[in-house]
């Protein structure tokens, strides 16, 4: 079983999701199934089939989250040496040298990655291109959208 790096915040989010799925969603679905069952013929009962499908999805997600938590290798970046190096869990402040745009990314594990929230997977092209680099470095990264050139303005460990 391969360990997956995850941030402290990422693990907390997964634990909260697991509690919600088990303590809120599961009983809600069980109630919907028994309500649908009381309507009689199950073959023609769309509510019953929808609730059973929801139950299957919910149980699958519970197993998935439990598996992620079991494989979690929690990395608390606030306890690491912060010498300006880009590492897992750090937040990197960049300047795109092609567009002059400033952007920041937090480097996270697979299950936390969400580009809309500026959380990038450490094995993504940008993640791989930044890890190990230092504050003030100029970085050229090959992305699916083409080559991008950045300057690392700052690295924070929060």
Number of domains: 2
Q: State mean pLDDT (0 to 100 scale).
A: 93
> How many alpha or pi helices?
3
How many whole angstroms does the radius of gyration measure?
21 Å
Briefly note the structural class of the backbone: alpha/beta
* CATH architecture classification of the largest domain: Roll
- Could you give the distance between the termini? 29 Å
Share of β-strand residues:
25-35%
Characteristics of this structure?
single chain; Helix Hairpins; Chitinase A, domain 3; five-stranded mixed β-sheet; 3 helices; 7 strands; 26% strand
Account of the 3D structure:
Helices cover 39% and strands 26% of the residues. Helix 1 runs antiparallel to helix 2 (46-71). The radius of gyration is 21 Å and the shape is elongated. It has 2 domains: 4-75, Helix Hairpins (Orthogonal Bundle); 81-156, Chitinase A, domain 3 (Roll), CATH 3.10.50.30. A 5-stranded mixed sheet has the order 5-4-3-7-6. It has 3 helices and 7 strands; from the N terminus they run E-H-H-E-E-E-E-H-E-E.
